[in-house]
Amino acid sequence: MNKADYNQEATRQLSNTTFYKPLPSDPTLDYQKKLHCLLKSLPTATREQILTESPSDPRPGLFYLLPKIHKPGHPGRPIISGIGTLTTGLSSYVDTLLKPFVTNTPSYLRDTTDFLRKLQNIDNLPNNTILATMDVEALYTNIPHEDGLQAIRNTIPEDTTANLIADLCNFVLTHNYFRFENNLYLQISGTAMGTRMAPQYANIFMADLEQRFLNSRPLSPLLYLRYIDDIFMIWTHGQETLEIFHRDFNNLHPTINLSLDHSTREIHFLDTTVQINNGKLDTTLYRKPTDSYSYLHASSSHPEHTTRSIVYSQALRYNRICSNPTDRDQKLQDFYQAFINLNYPPGEIKKQIERARRIPRNHLLQDRPKKTNNRTPLVITYNPQLKPVQHIINKLQPILEQDTIFKEALGDFLRFASCPI
């Protein structure tokens, strides 16, 4: 997409007065006063936590598009970068409050691994089983503020907490101003894909909507799972009733539109293809037509362990997704050739692939809790002379740990990291 087409698409979207309103001037100072008034109503510790994550000199968000190159006309996905904006800290705090309620919803999917885990024990499917997916069109921008906030109140059981979170969320939604080119805008409907709380907010809205719908249906899916705006279903009541289900779901809310795709053999969901095989489900890797194996080239100046880990982590992904070992190995042959084309050493590619293949698939699908990391990172600008500094820090580490006050203040071992200029 060239710059003229990009700007034309951005202008087209920003001209939609249902979602955006031009601003005559920068409202930062006025909005800052309103934010401080809101924060005064919060406990001191909460207020300080939000302010700690908020920039001292906030700026408007930055609007940009991610072209959907796999769709006709390459429409742009609107993103408003929330980094350094007025609501950065508040949005992060709301995200923390909403997350426990999101993860407890029946349809919640954390990622592909979570999806695969939930398919593991499904078998004895009847002959008329249909695999179906639904996609919510432009979910983030199509959630009316009042409906999204009501979904929060419906989801959180304690009224005082629900109203507080809804008020904080409302401030983020109604003060989402941003810049494109030399113009300022305010988003007046929906939430920005780019603010921290957006995924949790969208999840709660959809969970509230779908639960009310599913509870009212005479026929329900055998399995119903959702990753934000992507829905996966196993349907066992015939195609006609599936189409009625889809039609009625589409009529439930005026701004929510769902597309439907279905098959009695296989269907794509996230980065997987799910297949029905003798009453059981098999999964294999799905690569979009636009996927061109755009991994890091071997000539890059990255450390060797980085390039090695790319091959290993991607081979692990193949091992995790492909339920049939023969299918996995066939796909790994293409994978091997892709890294050969990127000038990776053949021996190293084979070594990392074999290392990944040795790990049992059921081990990769286990839900392992994340390790808590209390180490304090030392992040400084990259310099070729940093290696000696790293060795000195590592050498002095045991001495520093003997100081109980120092260790209590910094927690676990120091971590040494460097950033490129």
Automatic annotation (TrEMBL):
PROSITE patterns: RT_POL. InterPro entries: HTH_animal (IPR058912), RT_dom (IPR000477). Residues 47-300 form the Reverse transcriptase domain. It comes from the Eukaryota. Pfam families: HTH_animal, RVT_1. This is Reverse transcriptase domain-containing protein. It comes from Pelodiscus sinensis (Chinese softshell turtle).
